[in-house]
Design a protein that fits this description.
Chains A, B: It comes from Sphingomonas abietis. Chains A, B: It catalyses: a 5'-end NAD(+)-phospho-ribonucleoside in mRNA + H2O = a 5'-end phospho-adenosine-phospho-ribonucleoside in mRNA + beta-nicotinamide D-ribonucleotide + 2 H(+). Chains A, B: Its cofactor is Zn(2+); Mg(2+). Chains A, B: This is NAD(+) diphosphatase. Chains A, B: InterPro entries: NAD-cap_RNA_hydrolase_NudC, NudC-like_C, Nudix_hydrolase, NUDIX_hydrolase-like_dom_sf, NUDIX_hydrolase_CS, NUDIX_hydrolase_dom, Znr_NADH_PPase. Two copies of one chain form a homodimer. The first copy, chain A, is about 25% helix and about 25% strand. The first copy, chain A, has about 290 residues and is α+β, with helices and mostly antiparallel strands. Chain A has two domains: about 110 residues; about 140 residues, Nucleoside Triphosphate Pyrophosphohydrolase (Alpha-Beta Complex). In chain A, the strands form four sheets. In chain A, strands 10, 11, 12, 13, 14 and 15 form a six-stranded mixed beta sheet that branches. In chain A, helix 6 crosses helix 7. The first copy, chain A, starts with 14 loop residues before the first helix and ends with a helix. At the A-B interface, helix 4, helix 5 and strand 13 of A face helix 4, helix 5 and strand 13 of B.
Chain lengths: ~290, ~290
C-alpha cells in the first residue's frame, strides 16, 4: 500500500523540548545541530534527491530559528524568514518534491508550513500588536494582550463520489481552471467550523457537482504545505449520476470507469485524462479506489 | 449507530450566496429571516430543548450579522459580537447542549465558532490593521494589505490505543487535571503542520502515554466549538502495554477492559471510571470500540 505523499517523515518533533528554553538552547549549541537549506521557501538541492542540511555552527544566523525536532538524534532547525515571498508553487518546486524521498518531503512540508505561517502572522489577530516567537518557533505570543497564536492547519476534504458497484462503478473527477492541461482530480474543499468530515464531504460534492452522497468512508490523509492544509481523503456513494457542475469552482467534471482511471494512472496514450501527481493524495485516492473500493 | 455530538445540523450553508451581496441582502430582508438567540456565546432557551430564533425584522441590529445559511428555506443569521467574553465552558452551557437535539447542537456549534472567531480576530495577522467582515460573515479582509482571513478550524486527533484482541482487548483512558472528578476519556492532541492524521495519533500516544501504535484506523469525526476544533477519532493497535505517563498532560492513565468500559458507559455503581459526556466524540469512540473493534 503506497503511503500518501508528504508522510513518513523521520522527524521526532521533540514537542516537550519546545517548552524548555534551556533544552532548546542546548540543542542549538549541539556541534552536530543542523539547519535546513532553504532559499526562501525552496528546498535547496532537493532536486538531487535529498534535503540539504548545514551545520548550524558553520552559519551566521540573522533571524530566529524554529526547532523542527531531531532525526537520528541530531537536532534540526529551520530559519524563520519574516519577509519570505508568498510565491506558492513553481514547476521547479514540484520537480524537487518529486525527486525527494517521502520522508524528506514530509520534513520539508513541516518546515515550509511553519516558515510561511510566521511570515504571514507577525501581528496579533486579537489586538494588532507585533507578536514575538515563542515555544522554539511553534507559536507567537502578544506582548500587549498576551494572546497566544499557534500555526494554522486547515482541514480540507478531498473525495470521490462513486456511482454503481464492482466492475460497473464510476467516480467523478473534475478540473479547476488552474490545473495543467488535461489534468483531472478528486473534488476538494475546505472544511468549515461546525462540520464533521462526513458533512463537509457531502456538502462539497453537492455544491461543486450536484451529487448527493451517503455512506461516506475515510481513506487516508496527508499534510499539504501550500500553505498548510490537512488533506482528508474520502469516498461517498451516490444513487444518482446526474451532475450539476458549479462553473465558478470547476471547469469540467465527468464520470470515469475503473478502466479509465487505470489508464490515466498508467499514463497510457489516449487515456481520458491526466492524473494528479504522485505526491498528491488524490493520486493515492484514485489508486486505492482501483484496488480497494 | 449513534452519530457523534454536534453533527446532523439541518443547515444548508448556502455558501454560494456569501459571495453575492445582493443575494445576502435579499435573504436579510426576507420577512421570515431569523436571528439566533444568543446571550454572549450562550444559546438562550436551549435548556428547554431547542435553539431560540427571533424574526430579524423584530429586532434592532447594532452589530454585523453572519449568514449561517437556511433551514427549511428560511434564512438564518447570527449577530457578531466584537467584545464577546471568551468564557469557554460553564455547567449551564453543557446542560443546555445536553438538552438540545443533535441537529440544533450542530447549528449552535457553527454559530458559536464563528462568533468567537470574529471576536478574537479583529486585526490583520499579516500587518496589524483592523480588518472588516466580508463574505456574509465567513471571512475578514484587510483594507491595508488586502490579506483575506478565514475562520480557523483546528484539527485534533482523539484516540484509543488498543492492546490485545477480542475479549482480551484493553484500551488506554486518561484524565486531565481539569476533568470532573472520576472522569476518564480518550487521549487527544492538536495535529501539527506537516503531519497526517495517522502520524499525529502515533505521536500523541507516544508523548502522552509512551505507547507505540501501528495500524491506526479512523472511526468518526465531530466539530467541537470550544473554540473551533475538528475532532478526529481513531484507534491504533499496540503490542506493548507498558505506560509512561506525561504528567504535564495527564493526571493519570490506565488500561481498561471491555467489561470496564461497558460498566462506565452504563454509569454502573462501582464502575472504574466516569465516562465522557454523550455529546463528546470520546463517548462515541468508546461505544463503537465496544461494538465494532
Amino acid at each position: 500500500m503506497t503511503l500518501p505523499g508528504f508522510t513518513g517523515s523521520l522527524l521526532d518533533r521533540a514537542d516537550e523540548a519546545r517548552h524548555d528554553e534551556a533544552v532548546v538552547g542546548a540543542m542549538r549549541a549541539d556541534p552536530d545541530a543542523l539547519l535546513l537549506d532553504m532559499d526562501g521557501l525552496h528546498p535547496i538541492g532537493a532536486e538531487q534527491g535529498a534535503l540539504g542540511w548545514t551545520r548550524l555552527r558553520h552559519v551566521t544566523i540573522e533571524t530566529e530559528l524554529a526547532l523542527l525536532g531531531t532525526i537520528e538524534g541530531t537536532p534540526r532547525f529551520v530559519a524563520l524568514q519574516p519577509g519570505v515571498s508568498a510565491v506558492r508553487r513553481t514547476p521547479e518546486l514540484f520537480a524537487a518534491i518529486t525527486a525527494l524521498p517521502a520522508s524528506d518531503a514530509g520534513t520539508y512540508a513541516t518546515a515550509r508550513s511553519l516558515v510561511d505561517w510566521h511570515a504571514r502572522h507577525g501581528f496579533c489577530a486579537n489586538c494588532g500588536t507585533a507578536t514575538l516567537v515563542f515555544r522554539a518557533g511553534w507559536g507567537r505570543a502578544c506582548p500587549a494582550c498576551h494572546a497566544q497564536h499557534f500555526p494554522r492547519v486547515d482541514p480540507v476534504v478531498i473525495m470521490l463520489a462513486q456511482h454503481g458497484r464492482g466492475a460497473d462503478a464510476r467516480i467523478v473527477v473534475g478540473r479547476q481552471p488552474a490545473f495543467p492541461p488535461g489534468r483531472y482530480s478528486a473534488l476538494a474543499g475546505f472544511l468549515e467550523p461546525g462540520e464533521s468530515i462526513e458533512e463537509a464531504v457531502a456538502r462539497e460534492l453537492k455544491e461543486e457537482a450536484g451529487v448527493t452522497v451517503h455512506s461516506v468512508r475515510y481513506l487516508a490523509s496527508q499534510p499539504w504545505p501550500f500553505p498548510s492544509q490537512l488533506m482528508i481523503a474520502c469516498i461517498g456513494l451516490t444513487d444518482d449520476d446526474a451532475l450539476t457542475i458549479d462553473r465558478t469552482e470547476l471547469e469540467e467534471a465527468f464520470w470515469v470507469t475503473r478502466t479509465e482511471v487505470a489508464a490515466a494512472l498508467a499514463h497510457e496514450p489516449g487515456a481520458r485524462f491526466l492524473p494528479p501527481p504522485p505526491y498528491a493524495i488524490a493520486h493515492t485516492l484514485l489508486s486505492r479506489w482501483l484496488t480497494e473500493a
